[in-house]
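During the first year of the project, the team set up a workflow for recording each protein of interest as an amino acid sequence followed immediately by a discrete structure-token representation. This format lets reviewers and collaborators read both layers of information side by side without switching files. As required by the reporting guidelines, we include two representative entries from the current panel. The first entry is reproduced here exactly as it appears in our internal archive.
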Amino acid sequence: MALTASPYQETTPDTRGYFDLPPIADEAKPGSLDYQILEWAEERLKRGIRFVESQVGYDKIDAAIRMIFDFERSSTLTYVPINAPKSLSATRANFVSKIAEDLTAMLTDTRYFWNYSTENQKYQDQARIANKCAERWYTDRLIDLRIGDVLRYYTVAGTGYAHLYYSRRLDDMMLEAEDPRNVFPIDPLSYHTVQDSLGIIVRRARTPEWFREEFGKVVRAEAGAGTSGGVFGWLTRIIDGPGDRGGPLSKKSNADAPIPHTPTVYVNTLYLNDMRVNKTGRTVRMGKWEDQNGKGVPLTPWSYEVKKGAPLYPFKRMIAWGNGVLGYDGPSPYWHAQYPLIKFTLNPWPMSWFGKAPLWDCLPLNTSLNGLLRVIDDHAAMVAQPGIVADRNVAKSEINKFDSRVPGYKIKTNMASGKGITVVQPPPLDQSLWEHVKWIQDTMQKLSGTADPSAMASLAQIPSDDTIDTIMKAMTPGVRLRSRILEGCYKELASQYLFDFCEFDSLAKRQAILGPQAATKEDFDYFPRTLIPDDVPDGEPGDIAGTENALALDGPRPIYERARMMLLAISCKFDPSSLLNSAAQQEIMKYFLLGKMGYMDVFTIWDKMGIQNVVPPNLTVPATIVERLALQQKLGIGLLVNAQGRKATDQTSPSMGETANGPTIQTS
């Protein structure tokens, strides 16, 4: 594996001994600054672990996961005793797994739906380009499936985390689901978000090779390699990912290492709200720099200079370590100055950081359901092979040879010596058992909220305005509440991505995606190849963007400050309840209606429908609807009324009907 340079490495990684086994670990020496930082960080890690483990429902997370994967025989949810006869039924119906799948599918039946807009005409091009690039990123990186992983954690734990980070291997932003048992907030103030916490720690199992490639330092494995654990290995062994309560990295719940048969190190990443300021009396350089011709040049977008009295970490601090080795300690790489984790708690409660998972109430019901199914299964076995009663005069060999399940069996009896063998038919099965099975299934669906899709399916209508409106009304308040909370999570994700787009997407990358339209006039100003202006007005006297006076006042300001001021003018908007694909169909029909009235152009309608390759390369489509309508009229194209088909009326929408000849469409 090649040792490529990482933006987190202060120096080029040393390749000496890279293939030696084992290499010398770069453990912090007692008394050194790195050691003191690690001691402080490990203390915060212990505090975060105690907080997470003390939350209501923590013990149910592992039980829910085991039920989904049907580890029933080895869990406390088992119904059949371990020493039970093998002839008893072991039937299991995993409705918990089905409900988790339905919930995830229902909540990920979404589309790219947010929209960046601005009232400032100067930044119209930036908002337009951000929309196009965000939609490309959302579809190409399969972000909806990544969010599906986050929601799977929600179904079992009540909370899932979306970790939006920059991947240097992909040279793009990536979203990854984090196990809520491996995310530890430090001194949180509320349960809705992690952004008001003092800090947050994310723990992941990585290989020592990954650690060395990322941070340029050697670390010894903690699991799967038989190592001692390093300076701080005692804490890892005590916590054990976390503790003895069955965490995802716990050796109690995983016989092998977290990465099976692979040397593993637990990498902790702390994002910290460090409020310290520069008190040195001189300008301090933060991040990675290089001297070129006697002038300092920043090598990463998050490298900057701090003047006297200014904050040292304007967009937070990041500390990464594992097994006694400090990998990185410096500025967080994200201009948005937020923790890059979005907390998905769709059923929040003030009593618990996790909220309440929809599967927790279903666990005992599924256990009860399995017990009923086994009773029914055992009764069916008794009907197929009823029991027998034999007189004591019947030889044991004769009893063993007799099988009551064999059709047309014949028995010889000697009434003078006893009753012989008698077949005992079981009593009829109580029909209330079936009613109870049905009640359990319905109750599990109602408690989890998955009963709503069945109500939608029973409408039996072709999608239309009336149908979609009825579907939305058919949803329970709980589902609508989840949708509203999910929209808030998406808004936080969209806000962070907007900053990351401005920070990491270069002009060359934008042009490769969008072509010549990806360039703005700001890409060719005093600071070329970035769509962030040279200067953004911040209210200072005489501070007018783009003027020589503005540049003289600010010098100009650092690029991350200019990006923040520019992005204040760009907001993320979406209509309430617009997340579901059903709402998308309603929006398309609204645009069609406006088009037939002459108030909407075909280019916008094509864009809403996701139709590609409709505009020839030599045609430039304007940005505003008014200009597009003028272009449409000039080209002589528009929406035409077809002579065929059902004409528009004020009557109800068509619905599916049933006749003797089969299904038909009924109109009125």
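The second entry, processed by the same pipeline in the following quarter, appears below.
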Amino acid sequence: MGLSLSLFLSRLGVEHLVVERHPGTAIHPRAAMLLQRTIETFRTAGIQDEVLEASQKEFEQDGAIVSVESLGGKELDWYFRNVNEGVEHLSPSPRLFVTQIGLEPVIKERAAELGARLEYSSEVDSLDADDDGVTALVRKRETGEERTVRAQYVVAADGAHSPVRERLGISMAGRGSFSDSVTIYFRADCSELIGDRNLSVIYVFHPRQIGFFRFSLDKQSGFLVVNSAADENGVMSPRLWDDTSESRCVAWVREALDAPDDLTIEVENVQRWNAQADVAERFRDGRVFLAGDATHVMPPTGGYGGNTGVQDAFNLAWKLAYVLDGRAAPELLDTYEAERQPVARLTVEQAYARYVLRLDKSLGTDDLAPIVEDALIDLGYRLRSAGIAREQDDDDADWEDPRQPTGRPGFRAPHVELVRNGSRISTLDLSEGSFVLLTGADGGAWVEAASDVASELGVPVDAYRVGADLEDGSDTFFSSYGIDTAGASLVRPDGHVAWRSRTSVEDPRTALRDALALTLRR
């Protein structure tokens, strides 16, 4: 998450320093399902193609999510035959699988190209915040050398056990921990067991263990997550840390594979972790912000954890950029927690509900959140804050189906395919880190207003007329954005609708100025 924030800040020209305790990018191949909205943010930062290339080197893409009794045994259920089936038209970006080993170097290289300062093998030992900034004591882990760094703001993306969060006395609340889980990275020739099946995620519901597999492209390695297993008395238990020896881990892998006795299984690494579902009670303490796993921890069912963290970063980056250069008031930063904390709570509950229903109903099903479709969680969530306009006839819905977008403020700006100078582009491609005003062929007054307001407030606004500057190749733009050919939609630098006018108004300059001032908290 810290690297993603660095990328987004670098793209916006914000000088910053990344302090990372590890000596480099990830060495353990923790796999991630990157959802469409996450790839959209990387697309905006100019690295979608590189991320796609990295993913294709590691995994067969567009695979199924399936449950089995064991890999070589009975198939139980198919959740997706293809993880992109039915959502391809919702975004210019696909869902894909990539490990942190594959992803992080791509992000790092692009961030460094844009001027990011990345310092590895270092830790922040203390933070001292005052009214004007934050003083950090940074220590090199290899030498013990210490120095102080002065910054206007600090973002702590330091993981689920965030030392910064603990120092600030910010607690976590939610479901707590419900499994002492184990991830076993192993090498074994699984080609015959997998066969010609294109399987992205394989849930294992064995009589003696519950968990899931992921396999490499060559089917010669993978990992097994074990969430619960039978103890010495044959009773299923989620407390697995008493014995994570190599022999025990090999036995778990062999059992879940239903592998023959002569198959060689080599354990490369074992990681112990807590399955939990919690959200930080605060995302900010003065000039110190929390993001990623430091603010929300959820089980991997659904693959939402890392994706939610990237959205934290994308939301916060443009706000920091605009406040630091004076385009926005400091109060804009108050909208980070207001917008992201409710989304985190909703997403954590969705991940927890999936965990219970898929993996462990013994946790109880009475108080689970109703399951919401993945596409809604990814592309249909709503942001609310004092920086987003509220319409008089609006409802309190937390989600909307991105297949039937409304264009209401707070929701992600819908993806609509447009044509510019003969080339197809997405509405999501129009932002270059600035605000975008979208109107129709009859919206010339809005374009003039955008130029005047941008000059007055010193905030660039890129204005486009669909039907004049851009062609609506799918004939869905106006219905998707909920405006007519004389209306206007103001889209923030993070791709969320900030305000709209469904039709023309008597004084577009004042209307747009007020909307932009509201969004920037000026």
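For the second entry, the following points were noted during internal review. The longest strand covers residues 172-187. The domain at 2-59+91-165+279-376 is CATH 3.50.50.60 (FAD/NAD(P)-binding domain). Both points are flagged for discussion at the upcoming steering committee meeting.
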